[in-house]
């Protein structure tokens, strides 16, 4: 049996632009990030450095995306990698004037703090989106029928794989839907996107700004959002 | 610093119903599955044993789901855990008569083989859905506006986390959208689901049937589905 190679955390060489891989648990190697550790610490990272990132990392993120489940394995996803400064500026001008979705009022002090932090970070990203080295526009081809939530089942699992991969590679990103919500028609015209395609997400991608890092998310526990057999009946683990 | 505990693969005790956790890399412990290994091998597993699974595992899957990104951290997801034999049978009777989405013809022999395998597996699951120990109906509360693909950004990342967690815990599952596509109104009435809620996915969950396991997915490479700056212009990693 050969040695098993896995991506090694924090071992990207910014000079020669290669992603580090190594033997799992090798003496001088940092271990690959574990699945659950990645899931538990993949929060939005909206403070993104303008430093360029190697295409090898962009490809690694995309390569995680295309492993995701999708309807009938039709792989109708298409990704546009955007680095052109003028295009990024064009997007930023529209992104910053698109409203965030309405929020319910926070329920407690922790939620108030999280919301204030997220608002500040969202504003920072909106002002700096054009400086982010790479934007990935995630699109889905469709059959012309009206858009519906279930169409998202063929693209957002890929998007989530990409966000987890970014977290695993030490890159900052966040799931945004502002093009779809705010300037779908315009961005499709600008980028030559055909009619039967929905833009689903815009992922900014780059190194985190110094001092910003991944960490635990602030979520209501499973028991507050899970029902037993019927809507409204409390669930808890019994066995 | 205390010892860091992580879920240990294949260490669930089916007698005492506890998920195994252990020190990473401990002498007698199986290592936690790596993030990229999970992503690269999380394919649909539709051959699911009727053997019961502990709630502790169901909770672990849900607990991965709620870490996912979602619009404004509003956490409008709700999950219904279904084990009741009559409800499962009721769902199966409607699930099996709901069409799969239309497929484009396969492009080569490998795709033909994959499609035939998937069709057989999908038919198997449709005939045996009521025997699967747990069904999780993943729902999303909304504001009453028309459904749209971007609404999926607040539920399918959670669904993907759940599928990756299942893969990490050695459980079989698959993303299905048949309730939404085939019997949304009926299932909402059956389970008492309020008006402003979309069902987004139904995840069957159980141990894999003997001999069925996770493995690599069959996908077109990144370069076939990625564009450079504009739709239709080929992209490849250059740096």
Question: What does it look like?
Answer:
The structure is a homodimer of 239-residue chains. Chain A is 33% helix and 13% strand. Chain A is an alpha+beta fold. Chain A has a 3-stranded antiparallel beta sheet. In chain A, strands 1-2 form a two-stranded antiparallel sheet. The longest helix of chain A has 20 residues. Chain A is globular, with a radius of gyration of 19 Å. At the A-B interface, helix 1, helix 2, strand 3, helix 4 and helix 5 of A face helix 1, helix 2, strand 3, helix 4 and helix 5 of B. Strand 6 of chain A pairs parallel with strand 3 of chain B, so a sheet runs across the interface.
Approximate helicity band of chain A: 25-40%
Separation of the first and last Cα atoms of chain A: 39 Å
Number of DSSP helical runs of chain A: 8
**CATH architecture annotation name of chain A:** 3-Layer(aba) Sandwich
CATH domain topology of chain A = NADH Oxidase
Summarize the helix and strand pattern of chain A as letters. Answer: EEHHEHHEHHHEHE
In the residues of chain A, how many domains can be counted? 1
Coarse structural class of chain A? alpha+beta
Strand numbers in spatial order across the main sheet of chain A: 3-4-5
Mean pLDDT of chain A: 89
Shape of chain A: globular
List the helices and strands and how they pair.
The structure is a homodimer of 239-residue chains.
Chain A: E1 5-7, E2 21-23, H1 35-41, H2 55-65, E3 77-82, H3 85-95, H4 109-128, E4 134-141, H5 156-169, H6 178-182, H7 184-191, E5 197-205, H8 222-225, E6 226-228
Antiparallel strand pairs in A: 1-2, 3-4, 4-5
Helix pairs in contact in A: 2-5
């Amino acid at each position: 049996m050969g040695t098993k190679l896995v991506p090694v955390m924090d071992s990207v060489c910014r000079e020669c632009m290669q992603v580090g891989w190594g033997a799992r648990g090798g003496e001088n190697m940092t271990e690959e990030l574990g699945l659950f550790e990645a899931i538990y610490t993949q929060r939005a990272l909206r403070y993104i450095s303008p430093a360029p990132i190697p295409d090898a990392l962009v490809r690694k993120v995309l390569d995680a995306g295309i492993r995701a489940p999708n309807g009938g394995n039709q792989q109708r996803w298409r990704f546009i990698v955007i680095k052109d400064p003028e295009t990024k500026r064009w997007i930023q001008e529209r992104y910053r004037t698109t409203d965030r979705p309405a929020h319910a009022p926070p329920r407690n002090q922790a939620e108030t703090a999280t919301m204030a932090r997220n608002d500040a970070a969202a504003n920072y990203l909106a002002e700096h989106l054009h400086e982010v080295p790479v934007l990935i526009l995630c699109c889905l081809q469709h059959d012309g029928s009206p858009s519906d939530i279930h169409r998202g089942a063929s693209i957002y699992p890929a998007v989530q794989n990409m966000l987890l991969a970014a977290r695993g590679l030490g890159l900052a990103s966040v799931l945004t839907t502002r093009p779809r919500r705010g300037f779908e028609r315009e961005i499709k015209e600008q980028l030559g996107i055909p009619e039967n395609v929905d833009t689903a997400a815009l992922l900014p991608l780059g190194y985190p700004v110094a001092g910003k890092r991944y960490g635990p998310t602030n979520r209501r526990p499973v028991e507050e959002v899970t029902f037993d057999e019927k809507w409204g009946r409390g669930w808890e683990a019994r066995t």
